[in-house]
Each structure stands twice: as C-alpha cells, then as structure tokens.
Amino acid sequence: MDVKQGQDDRGSMADLYSTLGVHKGASEAEVKKAYRKLAKELHPDRNKDDPNAAERFARVTAAYDLLSDKEKRAQYDRGEIDDQGNPRMPFGFNGGHPGGGAGGFRGGPGGMQFEFGEGDVGDIFSSIFGGGRGQRRPAKGADVAYRLNIPFEDAAALKPQRITLANGKTIDLKLPHGVEDGRQMRLAGQGEAGPGGNGDALVTLHIQPHRFFTRDGDHVRLDLPIGLDEAVLGAKVKVPTVEGPVMLTVPAGSSSGKVLRLKGRGFHNLRGERGDQLVTLMVDIPADDAELKSFTERWKEGRKRNPRAGLGV
Length: 313
Hints:
The structure is a single chain. The longest helix has 15 residues. Helices cover 25% and strands 23% of the residues. By secondary structure, it is α+β, with helices and mostly antiparallel strands. The protein has 3 domains: 128 residues, Orthogonal Bundle (Helix Hairpins), CATH 1.10.287.110; 64 residues, HSP40/DNAj peptide-binding domain, CATH 2.60.260.20; 88 residues, Urease metallochaperone UreE, N-terminal domain (HSP40/DNAj peptide-binding domain). The strands form 5 sheets. The chain has a 4-stranded mixed sheet with strand order 9-10-14-13. The protein starts with a strand and ends in a 12-residue tail after the last helix.
C-alpha cells in the first residue's frame, strides 16, 4: 500500500482542526469561539435552502465534541484515535521500524511504503475485527438523529429535559456544562438494533429564544423598565430571572443605560462556573402626564447643568 509523501495515514492529523478553522495548538477558548461562529453560520435553521448545511453542521459539531474533551483531544493529537473517536490501526507490527524489520514501513520511490511480514496481515485484521482471520465484527445498527427544543430558562439552569426516542423509551436528558445552541449529544446504544449491537441516538440541542432574555456568552441580559420616581429616588423592584423573580435595588439617581449585575444567574461554562444576569435600566417616562410636564418646566428654569458637557457640546 503506497501513501503519498507528506500525508499522514490518518488523512492529516489537522483534519478536525481545519474543520473548525483553528491551528493544532489552539486553546480551549479559541476552539469554542470557532465552533460558536461556525454553528451559527451553518445551523440548518438558517440554511433551509442548502441541502448540504446539515451535513456540514454535523461535521463541525462532531469536531468540537472531540476537541473539547481534553482526554480525547490528547489521544487524537497522539494519533491513538481517529476523527470519529475510534482507535486507529497501529503501525510497525512485530517490532517493525522505519526501514527495517519483517513487518514495518520504509521509504521508497514515490513515497512511503508499508510492508507486512508473513502472518502479519491476518493478525492485524484479527485484532481489529475480533475472532479468526477474515472474520469481521457484525455491524452495529444505524444511528438515529433527534432535535430537542429547550426552553431558554432550562438551558441556563441546566434542567433535565425529557425526550421520547423512536423505540418508545423516555429519557431524562442531563444537559452538559457549556451547553450551546446546536450542540450534539450522543446517547450510546439508543439507536437502531443491528447484529453487532444498537447504534446511537444523536440529539441536537436547540435553545429556544426568549421574549425578553438574551444570551451574551455565559451571561444573560435583560432590559428592565423602571419608573421616573424609581430612577430619581431609588427603589427595590422585582426582576425576572431564569430561575424566578428576585428583588433588585435601584440606586437613587439612576439613568437609562445603567447596568446592574445579579451574580450567578446566567449560563454554566465548560468548567461549571456560572455567568451573571446583566440588567440594563430603561427609564419609562409617560407621554401625556400634565403634572410631570408642569413640574419639568418649572425645574428646567433653574437648571444649570449640561448633561452633554462631557461630549464637548
């Protein structure tokens, strides 16, 4: 068997990295950032007219699933597993080394060549497929794909999600830390039956948008309307969060755009740490309040402060 020079037998160890558009030494944060960007671009919901979008999306998700697992990424970098997470065929059986041994590999005209000594081939395939020579392990059943819609609040709080599989089995799915829209989870043995065992269930998570919460990385953002009196005098107000309402103190003299922070009310990252809820105050001024207009006119006459002085105007 000939392999072109400069090409790895694994089809290039950079395959998963190039799929995500990062270099081999990329940090966890760089890998995650690249995946987020691609997942948004390739999500099937945004590419309904592109029949290949789902396949590209699945490749990107599979690459991220492996590279985001420290142990599997190390095994992949060492060449112990392929881009599907399966063990690779080892080289140099029977103590073979480059250029020598009864079974091994050596340089040759036109590239690198692999050689097997007498009896090696049968032993190789026996170790890979199990059993005697030429006996393949029975094929597993097909994988089954699912799409699971998750309420925004449940995703932030990592509440288990119930899913009913094609075989009628109901599972309470535990959401992982760092859950993202488009993330795929694999449920081993929950696919179709086959002579070599069941395939897997591949569950793609879809985090549903919320009517007033938005996600900002690991944080949750909320625009909170407050009354003029609450802004001027300060107040304690009730604020919705992903886990129910809480009381928030609005400082006296607050302006629209001021951001207050509720610790630990956001999403969980891959390390299990939780982001915050960032509350942006929006002062709500009534349009037709005669008393307020009258007061403002009187107050304006004695006002000397220019709120735009800091802008040089």
